[in-house]
Design a protein that fits this description.
With about 60 residues, the protein is mainly α. The protein has one domain. The protein starts with a helix and ends with a helix.
Amino acid sequence: MERRVFEHNSGQTKSTKPGIPWELVYTKEFQTNIEANRAELDIKKKKSRKYIEQLISGQSG
């Protein structure tokens, strides 16, 4: 995770370069990379600031 945040903040990731600086505010562990990738895609599909804020704060939504 630390490496990925560093990559984002150093401009190595083209898609996140405009948002520098990035701060890690939410993590969750999964048993497999497949589960983690599916969860990430699900969050990205929502495209809802309210949903993401609820996720970060630990509220169901």
